[in-house]
């Protein structure tokens, strides 16, 4: 797990069900910079990305059981 991935896990633990844009604001980076990190984390079953029912253009980020175990 990289430093950036750990920061993502920590942020999702304390702020569950946030969007990628909100997460980027917490981590002081752009949403685009998180895309590759989040895709890799989803591939590794650490986070889950689901469509935001309130805004189909954004995704809500969820911490998985595997992601929670790493914390």
Report the major sheet. Answer: 3 strands, antiparallel
What's the Cα radius of gyration?
A: 11 Å
What spatial form do the alpha-carbon principal axes imply? globular
What ranges have pLDDT less than 50 throughout 5 or more consecutive residues?
A: none
Order of helix and strand elements from N to C terminus: HEHHEEH
Q: Count all strands and give the number.
A: 3
Mean pLDDT: 94
Q: Give the distance, in angstroms, between the N- and C-terminal Cα atoms.
A: 11 Å
Strand proportion, as a percent range, falls in: 15-25%
Estimated helix fraction: 40-55%
**What spatial order of strands do you see in the largest sheet?**
1-3-2
Question: Can you describe this structure?
Answer:
- The chain is of the alpha+beta class and 71 residues long.
- The protein has helices at 3-14, 20-27, 31-43, 65-70, and strands at 18-19, 47-52, 55-63.
- A hairpin with a 2-residue loop joins strand 2 and strand 3 (55-63).
- Helix 2 crosses helix 3 (31-43).
- The longest helix has 13 residues, at 31-43.
- 14% of the residues are buried.
- The mean pLDDT is 94.
Draw up the topology in text.
Blueprint: H1 3-14, E1 18-19, H2 20-27, H3 31-43, E2 47-52, E3 55-63, H4 65-70
Antiparallel strand pairs: 1-3, 2-3
Short structural description:
The protein is α+β, with helices and mostly antiparallel strands and about 70 residues long. The protein contains four helices and three strands, in the order H-E-H-H-E-E-H.
């Amino acid at each position: 797990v990289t430093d950036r991935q750990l920061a993502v896990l920590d942020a999702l633990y304390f702020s569950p069900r946030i969007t990628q844009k909100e997460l980027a604001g917490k981590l002081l980076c752009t949403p685009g910079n998180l895309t590759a990190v989040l895709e890799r984390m989803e591939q590794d079953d650490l986070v889950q990305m689901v469509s935001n029912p309130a805004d189909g253009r954004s995704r809500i980020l969820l911490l998985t059981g595997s992601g929670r175990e790493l914390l």
